[in-house]
Please model this.
Amino acid sequence: MCQRLVRTPLGRARGAPVTSPAVALLVQKFGGTSVGDPERIRTVADYVSRCVRRGDRVVLVVSAMGKETEELLRLAGDVSTTRPGREMDMLITAGERKAIALVCMALADAGLDAESYTGSQAGFITDTRHTDAKILEVRPDRIRAALEAGRVPVVAGAQGVSTENDVTFLGRGGSDTTAVALAKALGADACELYTDVSGVFTTDPRVVPEAKKMAKVSFDELLEMTSTGCPKPAMRSVEYAHRHGVTLHIRSAFTWEPGTWVTEEEPMEHAVVSAITHDVSEAKVTVAGVPDHPGVAARIFRALADEGVVVDTIVQNTSEAGVTDISFTVPHADLAVALATVDCLQEELGAVRVSGDPDIARVSVIGSGMRTNPGVAATMFETLAEAGINIDMISTSVIRTSCVVRQDQAERAVQVLHAAFELGAPY
Amino acid sequence: MCQRLVRTPLGRARGAPVTSPAVALLVQKFGGTSVGDPERIRTVADYVSRCVRRGDRVVLVVSAMGKETEELLRLAGDVSTTRPGREMDMLITAGERKAIALVCMALADAGLDAESYTGSQAGFITDTRHTDAKILEVRPDRIRAALEAGRVPVVAGAQGVSTENDVTFLGRGGSDTTAVALAKALGADACELYTDVSGVFTTDPRVVPEAKKMAKVSFDELLEMTSTGCPKPAMRSVEYAHRHGVTLHIRSAFTWEPGTWVTEEEPMEHAVVSAITHDVSEAKVTVAGVPDHPGVAARIFRALADEGVVVDTIVQNTSEAGVTDISFTVPHADLAVALATVDCLQEELGAVRVSGDPDIARVSVIGSGMRTNPGVAATMFETLAEAGINIDMISTSVIRTSCVVRQDQAERAVQVLHAAFELGAPY
Amino acid sequence: MCQRLVRTPLGRARGAPVTSPAVALLVQKFGGTSVGDPERIRTVADYVSRCVRRGDRVVLVVSAMGKETEELLRLAGDVSTTRPGREMDMLITAGERKAIALVCMALADAGLDAESYTGSQAGFITDTRHTDAKILEVRPDRIRAALEAGRVPVVAGAQGVSTENDVTFLGRGGSDTTAVALAKALGADACELYTDVSGVFTTDPRVVPEAKKMAKVSFDELLEMTSTGCPKPAMRSVEYAHRHGVTLHIRSAFTWEPGTWVTEEEPMEHAVVSAITHDVSEAKVTVAGVPDHPGVAARIFRALADEGVVVDTIVQNTSEAGVTDISFTVPHADLAVALATVDCLQEELGAVRVSGDPDIARVSVIGSGMRTNPGVAATMFETLAEAGINIDMISTSVIRTSCVVRQDQAERAVQVLHAAFELGAPY
Amino acid sequence: MCQRLVRTPLGRARGAPVTSPAVALLVQKFGGTSVGDPERIRTVADYVSRCVRRGDRVVLVVSAMGKETEELLRLAGDVSTTRPGREMDMLITAGERKAIALVCMALADAGLDAESYTGSQAGFITDTRHTDAKILEVRPDRIRAALEAGRVPVVAGAQGVSTENDVTFLGRGGSDTTAVALAKALGADACELYTDVSGVFTTDPRVVPEAKKMAKVSFDELLEMTSTGCPKPAMRSVEYAHRHGVTLHIRSAFTWEPGTWVTEEEPMEHAVVSAITHDVSEAKVTVAGVPDHPGVAARIFRALADEGVVVDTIVQNTSEAGVTDISFTVPHADLAVALATVDCLQEELGAVRVSGDPDIARVSVIGSGMRTNPGVAATMFETLAEAGINIDMISTSVIRTSCVVRQDQAERAVQVLHAAFELGAPY
Model:
């Protein structure tokens, strides 16, 4: 029941019952699995028709069906090695065109007056960077007119028209961006991202079955949770929503239960810690025994950047006797390149040893409440110590504390931390 | 975390927490959407490997990928109008063969020693009724041997070999049956049915957002809930599990959170009412002013049965002045046939009027606790009355009370009943 | 070798052989099976690059890949019963967009500078009749500009933009129409229709293995051969080409051998008879013993037209004693309706008997030379008589003589006629 | 018309007309494109039913539909890097199972009593080499029984059962092998390979439009024509047919016209030269100035073999002054490895120079008549000389003369040779 979702979780006017819902303007984005086959498309249309019957005004943003974008990319790869950008975008945007037409047909069957709009028709003006275009401006005149005429506009996700009048594609995850940008441009009450999971969890339920779906999460927290394995709206769209104050609701197109709200507000009663995440996709490089000169770190990380290696956590201890160790993490795929790059510098830097370790994991505790609660890091370290888990590296942000541990201890670390911070569901 | 699921929700406390799990033997069935594409298959393999690493022994039962069975049926329909049963089963069982081979490959990548088994190889002996065969016997010798050798057997769902040595298909939903029958034959601790929803809800979350996922439900209750729109393991498999005492766990292959357990036991603290369901798929036929002779009802329902019309609820009021009204519900698709059939009898029966009404809905309150709690029906009627909803027909079973109401009041009825019986989630 | 095809088969001897080809402007249309998968698309691109290297200028018109249009129609049918025309055209035109983008990518790999154009971009203006729009005007300015810049334009078949700025679809077979209309608008030397067969045959090779591929055929002949089972460019496109004097070349995208030219010219040496066809898709209706009044036929065929029954051959014998028989053929699917319609008129017309016969076949001898050669019909009748095949009905056009015979004698009739007119290949 | 094909092209009893065909036992193999979609499957069934109605007895061998095998391989690659052979064969053989079931259904609609057989059921016993198994024995008892019962057996191509009772796949092109082996085992009159081209051509029609379809070709010639771009029945199957005396007929499932017969016999009137082929897939390596010691060639080609490089043509000129040049061709993909390998030996061999040339082509003249006609090579060299085409290398077999020329002159070479040997069609 759509209108409730706007009201209740945000704490506005919980009282008023089912009979007198506030009317909301909602942008509802349906991802690939949500419209993956005819039955699903009809289910979505049925759901949208319930929302409209209850008085909400809705604008749909639809992705290509199921894995169609992947299949189109594969087709292109099977056909061509050059793959000119203009043609790639002509190809890939065909997927969303199919989806919006089909969704409109299903809505027509459900008794709604719906109309499909390509990115261009919906007013998405982009730059000319094919296959990964950026939105320059949204001019949703036709969408507004359709809403005023009582129609349900259905907009193709992840596409626009460039300033040179060519079709452009916004890249993977671009439908989320389309939805958020449209919600902003229309002044919608919320942007609902329907997906195949029921929300954001306090940690990965595969690791901790007691993991609890969060009723809400702040933008800052969600942006820190990129590695949780839970639903991942495209980071670009979350940042866009954060910057423009668009309220998000990440929820399920399978169970239709309320999901997780992403908002700016920091409610009073908010728990200190919101979520535990872990990430096993990185490896560690250590440069040991480096003379502690100015410019040493700059030398190392400039060289890595020149090789295209993305470095995540960096830790440098205070030097003793003018000598220090520098450790950092890189994606597994880049470990070999990173080691080779630093090896070349070893002599120049005067380092004693360069070594790599692929078997690490980063475990993080995330929570907006950490800003005002200094004890979280200490509790985290104690909890790991009690469980016999050694900490290899530590890094922090304002609302996150991360420890690098042995990979085979990572899931155990997540379990004990989830219990220590009492994040579990009560049942 | 697989082993927990056997323990906690059943309240059996089979051991201490995370640190010392009991080893369980689990049959895990993955439906079509769970293995719908390569990414999903790899995700399933990753999950299974976690279960195995934690000490569980698992046997997988796998359906055809995504909508493949539907596509094969459509292909057959495009090719042929005769569609001989033997060839249909040769065709359709190809879908599960593909799936088991791919799952085994992904498990091999995850470091497990897996081996695929067709229904025949897994020991499923069926009768010779093609496209809808019944299991006569399960002789899982090769599955047992594989388990003892430390391998993960991956069994094709919904297939077997007939007593005439032809390939047979168990019909739609047959993978659930395969899983349950295998769990019984192997004496497994539980049969987990992984699907695209996270469990069974107290009512449809599209109608009542506060709808709560049930931690457990009894077989009797689940069998009464066939029309809830929530996850529907094939009824045949639920009945099989009920009859043979196989514990089911209906859960999500997307969020991997614990789902809903289906068991025999009736725990002490069980709520009186478990779920509210509604069904808009039926229409009502009324035969008014029938002289109250013996055999009248028999005449009507024999005639309907001869026409293949499936009748659900039947209500006959006490006669006044030797005259009574008989009403019953039939599927919408059968309304025309039902009316025509009864019309032909009108004169013979001496009925005053025969009428049909397609705009009805059945709303049901379901709960094992109703057996010992007589007030449920009264509360239901009062709640509907207070909401101004008129009751048209009433029928009951030991654990269910159903009212037929106007279709446009059905969702409102579900909402007020869900609130009245306090089934909602606390948040 | 593309340029040869313009020259040789037309006997125009446009120059010396291989070493000095004349440059031609060709519109090459590739149907669905010709671009049915990545390998085929690369094969087409290789072929086109050979044509361009030899100096031809080419414009491609491309259909949706393989059976994609059917699949999109099926998807729409699975999703919706209403299927609004505007959305249907948005959906279906996605197929050709994919195909043109992929063909351009393959051409880029083959070293050609290619650019894709939707129907709208290529200047196809249509009326507003969705799913079956008619071309109002072709303004191929961008195509001409691309050709002058040395590029290979690749145009989406079967689509345009309506006078109300909506995407329109030209209907099944519309790619042929796009190609012919573009050839006319550009003044191309020929329009090549690449398909999965190697040309038009003198009769169905399944019936007569000696059937010979025709080097050329006249428009009139081809239009009479609609039922031959041989390659069938959409009739609308053949009529368009006929009307506008566009030379067609029907040929194979699999063997790439020269196919069948379709032209206006009636060469001197042309055989009297070109082809034998047969058609088993019709049934016969006979109205026997009708009083021979004016307006009787009009009454019958107006009634049939009002029921939407398409009547093909009509035969009425001279009346004897003021009474006549009228027979006509209709598609099998319409036989029941046709019989019912005429039955209703029987009394009014005073007819003695109305009967239907589904087991007929029409066998036709087709040839432009029949215009000046009166003996063809006689030879046809004699040949059938010698073979013991009874003739049930006869109808003729200027270049065709058709006989209705028993269906089980149809193939035999084709065989003896093909031999009698010496149409067979010499080997 | 199937029975004719056995008679006429083999020169047996041409006289007897349509009315009294000899009954033949035919194995008809339908490749992927021939059964690529429902319409094609129904077309095949219609064709087969004509054959049966005319008295032929047929056994079908069917490949997986369209590109299904490729899709299954891709799925496997998307799912797994290990891809165990047993599971790969379980996966891939599902494709043919689908196809045989569908073909049987279509045959049932066409009124035939058909029955599908997997490779195992058809009696194909193979070794245990998964994904590329070899046939050890064919025991077609069930196929014979079905034929005797008047049924049409439909056998899954490219599959069998190993001596360890696992499902095995015979590798790409394995359906041809299945068909040939079955024709041998059943003593069939011919094995018809239906494909998407109409036969074997005298050269590539893309290069020489006058290229003519050959009515017949000898096994030796066909085996020499591997690089012609024309229909390529799997070499393994041609060799098998050659060895076992199985007559092949390569023909079209699209036009159904008679194709090319492959037989042992060398008819009197056979042309000296049958076909011209060219191959641009190889590159040339030259080792110049090698001292002419015994063992030099052995040293080079052993080293290449150890690296897995397949060498085709090798040419060594007579040495002058104890020094010689050795040239050889390798696939383009192996050029870099071949050059590196020989570079390493340069010093040891005392060679002056090692060089590679990717821009070569091999043009070949093929014909059984060359055995008794010494002038062919001379004509070939003269023709190329007159056309100004330089010959770089020459190699010959009993029925083939090949010249390596500049790649950009290859198509011209084919054109002049095709004309010189008068291979063109007369029209």
